[in-house]
Amino acid sequence: MSTLAFEDVRVRYGTHRSGLTAVDGVELTVPSGSVVGLVGESGSGKSTLARAAVGLAPVTGGRVLLDGTDVRRLPRGRRPVQLVFQDPYSSLDPRMTVGESIAEALPRRAFGGRQAFRDRKARHGEVARLLELVGLDAGRSGALPGELSGGQRQRIALARALAARPEVVIADEITSALDVSVQGSVLNLVRELQRELGLTMLFISHNLAVVRYVSDYVAVLYLGRIVEVGPAERLLADPQHPYTRELVEAAPSAHGSLLAAPDSPVADAEPGDPHRPPAGCRFHPRCPVGPLVEEARSICTTVDPATVAASREHRAACHFAAAVGDTDTPVPNSVVRTGFPSARSDTLE
Ligand code: SF4
Questions:
Q1: 11 CB near ligand 1 (under 6 Å)
Q2: In a domain, 158, yes or no
Q3: Using CA atoms, how far apart are residues 275 and 301, in angstroms rounded to an integer?
């Protein structure tokens, strides 16, 4: 597997006054074979970043690198970064059987030591294998997407992504359009596939509880910028940025429901407007420890905070990050990678 890196990536739509910078100077690395969870609210730029990685959004600054090579310079026909979309209803062609949809994504030409599937029999066998890999009966290959449930369709979307033999999979809110009763089984499938195949994965969600369930690292995006990133255990146990702290406090505990997050002050507050991001720290109009409550912190309204290292891999962009300096404080096991609490989580549809 490969490392995916966003190097000072900027995505801007439109021009001048009417323009919108959806992603602004994002630096993020998804190490080979690991899962980076990207969390942020609606409008933070999560999906735009995902789309930029696969060429569906314009990279107007910086670069997206796959093992050091700009993805725009990869050979034509290679699609090493696969994106699984939020909506399984629109991501599959309703006129194609699920077997045809998966077979369409199989490589016809061998490259980089990867197998090619040139004849019909080989494709048929591989489709059956992929269906079983995502927990579906191989006999469903003749079904049309409309005959399947939302959870089954999302499994087909995952199988189709894996069919392309990707180096990196980006999962963009893949459980948020699903019924709560099946979200757990899809999350468990993602975890199993990642471990079994050693996938490099960028897992995007607005729900920190979902992100922490599958991620080795967590990155927090706010109004187009990464405000905190670090190993999941450390970041969740010791969040440095006030926005992350609010997200962590709002996320359910190991003993609560993973998917039903309680109301949080952050969720209640008016989200920032990406068309007119605030000067200085973009979070300052909502910050519970910023200039709204501490007059002396007026620097937050004028100076963009630089990223501060809280430890070797843990960084936050805040003038008043909670603590600076390494710490070897043990992390409670309940904080991250908690078992999925739903009794239905292991039940496939
Ligand atoms: S820089 Fe200031 S406003 Fe921004 S998060 Fe830190 S304390 Fe809050």
A1: no
A2: no
A3: 17
DSSP 8-state secondary structure symbol assigned to residue 212: H
318 lines ligand 1 (CB under 6 A): yes
Quick one: which atom of ligand 1 is closest to the CA of 291? 3
| Of 303, 318, 324, best ligand 1 pocket probe by most atoms within 8 Å of the beta carbon | 318
First vs last Cα of the chain: how many Å apart?
30
How much is the average pLDDT of 326-346? 32
Backbone angles phi, psi at 197, to 5 degrees: -100, -5
Domain range for residue 178? 4-80+166-317
Does residue 100 fall inside a structural domain?
no
**What percent of the chain has a predicted confidence (pLDDT) above 90?**
60
Determine the residue type at 2. S
* Mutation test residue for ligand 1: of 297, 301, 303, the one with most atoms within 8 Å of CB: 297
Mean pLDDT (whole number) for 95-110: 88
Q: Residue 25 has which token pair? A: 């100077």
pLDDT tens column, 256-292: 444 444 444 454 566 778 888 899 999 999 999 999 9
CATH of the domain at 195: 3.40.50.300
Number of domains in the chain: 1
The whole-number pLDDT of residue 112 equals 63
Q: Which of the 8 DSSP states describes residue 329?
A: P
For residue 130, being part of any structural domain is answered with no
Q: How many CB atoms lie within 10 A of CB 55?
A: 15
Question: pLDDT tens digits, residue range 184-235?
Answer: 899 999 999 999 999 999 999 999 989 998 999 999 999 999 999 999 999 9
Q: Is the pLDDT higher at 79 or at 348?
A: 79
Return d(Cα 140, Cα 152) in angstroms, integer: 10
What is this structure's pTM?
A: 0.85
CA distance 246 to 237: 13
